[in-house]
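Quick board copy: two proteins, each given as sequence then tokens.
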Amino acid sequence: MSRLLEGITEAFRLIFSFDPELLQIVFLSLRVSLTAIIIAILLAVPLGALLGLKPEKRTRFINKIIFTLMGMPPVVAGLIIYLLLSRQGPLGVLALLYSPAAMIIAQVFLAAPIVAGLTMVGIRAKGTEIEETARSLGAGSTLAAWTVIKESRIAILGAIITGFSRVVAEVGAVMMVGGNIAGHTRVMTTAIVLETRRGNFELAIGLGIILLMLSFIINSVLYNVQRGGLKGAR
């Protein structure tokens, strides 16, 4: 018990003293995950919106693919990206393996189906009623579709935050394609695994505390936005 308390105390000391190694790992994690979620948003939100606006019977097969990818084990995603980027792979000429770019690609592969799937579900839940109301007020098909997307913004935001939560806490895929190289591809989750194995619990606990704080902030933002959206809808 005393060792745990010592580890927690030392972890807070590292955080509040702005330990260079800890900060480097945290900033790289945020850079990789934020870049990945931005790319996922650009790819997945339009796809999810397009699918959500179409009748379900016309997109049933694509829906099944997206839902399958939403539950893909991270190590499987890491394996696929690894094989694509390895020297013998079709993208091996780009020499991206064991780089932050490879980690971003893996995280996009994990986040995009989540963002697309939840966006589709959110839009489809409100789509018919809002679209019929918009058309009854004289809106054309394009304006009616935009109205549905606009009114589903809370669900879309929830999809984005869920996708970001998935990638920022990811360890298996980024370790496989990034290699967990100190100062180059070591992010919070992979560093926690490594430092725990080494017995360096202070740094591991410090990074764990920061991850929990990020999770709290992300979920607080979603909660407040959803509350605001529900109040505005009343």
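And the next:
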Amino acid sequence: MANPKKILNDPKKVVGEMLDGLVLANDGRLRKLDRHAAIVRTDLPDSKVALLIGGGSGHEPIFHGFVGRNMGDGAACGQVFAAPSPDIIYEAAKAVHRGRGILFLYGNYAGDNMNFDMAAEMLEDDGIDVRTVRVTDDVAAAPPERTHDRRGIAGDLYMIKIAGGASSQLNTLDEVERVARKAVANVRSIGVAVAAGSIPETGKLTFELAEDEIEIGMGAHGEAGVSRQKIAPADTVADLLMDKILGDLPFRRGDEVALMINNLGATTMMEMLIVNRRIRQILDREGIKVHRTDVGTWLTVQEMAGFSVTLLKLDDELKRYLDMPAESLGYSRM
């Protein structure tokens, strides 16, 4: 596969120029911090528990596209597929803090963990209460007894949506953290790719895959999956992914879930809807009720072709925050 073409200026300036465009596209609802690759809401209420999200760029619209009403209050942005630095996170956190503490919410990757932890220590030295919740929804990344080692993938969206809703309604950092942790404990995802993404600065592909092969369970940066096999019909692929998800929580007859099918960058809506059809057949057979379905593009790996499937087990509390209206460039729901 040839390296993909991109319409850019300087490949080394993609993040800054992208954030400039993102702020302008929000029509005054966001601002970019001076000297830092971070954005924050301009309409933050006083005395609000703050929600700071963030991670590497190149996965648009996550994370910076999810800053807005009942979503993230700000986002710290790294370079493409790289964690934001501690100083970026620190300045973004100071900008969103409104006196009730800050929840850090991000995917569970080593660089993000290290840099967000360093920023949290800096903020605690300033007397600011910080809690951290890491998203660990990727069932392919580690066995069930090691969920703390799993990566965060598209389940990040539902976690941001729930934590964003909770942080706008609840008055204490303890309560917002509790809701976010409950959400993380009940979300599971897995992805499949038929073609790799690329890194804008180098133009290189994230991995090599033969024309007749698919990769099962890769990470958000193209990390190796759990298996590689010959391409198969959509129903067969959906069966394989759902088999890995359903037994992991485990999901049981009578459960109610939110279902997400996420485009990794270059997959058509047609393909995802065909997969959705099969997934709903499986869930109906298993006696699992779908409360809501989201089919779209939320966590990408540049132009990677493929998709991921996420199931979030719901209770009344999680459902309430998930269903609250949300407004951001990358995800809105009225």
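Board note added afterward: The mean pLDDT is 95.
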